[in-house]
Amino acid sequence: MATDAQPIARAGGFYEELPAGCGAYKFYLDGAWRESSSGKQVSISNPTTQGVAFRVQACTPAEVDLMFEAAKAAQKPWARTPLWKRAQALHAAARLMREHPQPIADALVAEVAKPRKDSMAEVIRSADLIDYTAEEGVRYLGEGKLLTSDSFPGNERNKLCLESRVPLGVVLCIPPFNYPVNLAVSKIAPALMAGNAVVIKPPTQGSVAAIHMIQCFHRAGLPPGVINLATGRGSEIGDYLTTHSSAGCISFTGGDTGIAICKKASMVPLQMELGGKDVCIVCADADIALAARSIVKGAFSYSGQRCTAVKIVLVENAVAEELVDQVLEGVRQLTVGSPEDDASITPVISKSSADFIESLVHDARAKGARLRMDYRREGNLIWPLVVDDVTEGMRLAWEEPFGPVLPVMRVEGVEQAVAHCNASELALQGCVFTRDVERAVRISDAMETGSVQINAAPARGPDHFPFQGFRASGIGSQGIRNSLQMMTKVKSTVINLATPSYTMG
């Protein structure tokens, strides 16, 4: 693991130009890696050791201006580039990610404490996403539509409307710490394929993984200015980026910051994936073994630091004890330790995150919840915990822990579970376990949440599936085709004929 701000070992010089002589990683502007004129750096902590893992440049507002200027200048020529050539560039970037994955994966281990195996899987999944986007973009964006005027009452066939999709301009992409590569390319690839230019602001924890990923686009030969990367603390340049007059679209994944962005954005298309309190409803007729296995995986993968993690189980009383016993058995099989050892549970991202999770546990215990195992914490590492008998008066019933803590609420019936789901402001995903397919569909229809999985834990993928949240969990829908659609707008060209077209012949 990289510690004491030392650059990661670089594969065959492919990443050699990224760090400056002082060890701080550079930012990317107009086709070149640069050092900031601020002379300042931002330290990135290692969640496991709590020491400094890396340093990156602290970009200035003036450098952000230069990024948007470069993006605006490069966007129009890029939009005129044939679709197949744009696709070629994306395929080249994906190929380079597969050929040089280790430094990206190593950065994920060091910056966000993601297990090694999962880190490598994120890199490969991201390359797959880029390839699929290139192929889907050629198909979808290559389609047009022809409308004839005589389909509307009172009109002759003397007008032909050609409808096409055109880019928005410059897309600002802001991914989160937990998937700084995958959720970056889920924004970048459709933006570029649609003919937009990109400015990306990676999360502080996750910046170096994103920098290595952008190097693949750089080496793929994208024209200078088409993609630019700003590093620095969101508290210092975040508002400047999200309120920039040259941002033609904002695609953001994160938490409460997204709500603030929505309030400040003006006439800018938004794609927002925010927090989730993903409910898992377990009916009395469910396959309990399947439900328990799915809950353990869904709640504790990557230490629960996923927007699609199971955040609360609502189980009918008749099977509650059986379910909890099997969940506990599964949780006891999880390993706890460092990401280098591929432990199931690794440290959460920061001390403040660990403190917040701990406050939710203490609140629930003080109000009568049962901790079904001892609460244990060392630094940022929190052992997996099942909190039983959670009630609606506890914070854990409503707030998102974003950590390895699973609340269980026992309910009299499914109606009570659905009512709890629909009362939450966070409505990203949910899941239902039942052997009755008709019942599953009825429950899904009643749940006011963006996506519902039947007999499986919530999940984002496959990446071409629609993905969206309701209420405070988001705006707009993701998934590759949905993102291509969102990052373009409709353009109509109307041809006026001197005489109706059907009069010929």
UniProtKB/TrEMBL annotation:
Residues 33-492 form the Aldehyde dehydrogenase domain. InterPro entries: Ald_DH/histidinol_DH, Ald_DH_C, Ald_DH_CS_CYS, Ald_DH_CS_GLU, Ald_DH_N, Aldehyde_DH_dom, ALDH-related_metabolic_enz. One of its GO terms (molecular function) is glyceraldehyde-3-phosphate dehydrogenase (NADP+) (non-phosphorylating) activity. Belongs to the aldehyde dehydrogenase family. The active site is at E273. CDD domains: ALDH_F11_NP-GAPDH. Gene3D superfamilies: Aldehyde Dehydrogenase, Chain A, domain 1, Aldehyde Dehydrogenase, Chain A, domain 2. SUPFAM superfamilies: ALDH-like (SSF53720). Pfam families: Aldedh. It comes from Ostreobium quekettii. This is NADP-dependent glyceraldehyde-3-phosphate dehydrogenase. Keywords: Oxidoreductase. It catalyses: D-glyceraldehyde 3-phosphate + NADP(+) + H2O = (2R)-3-phosphoglycerate + NADPH + 2 H(+). Its EC number is 1.2.1.9. The keyword Transcription does not apply.
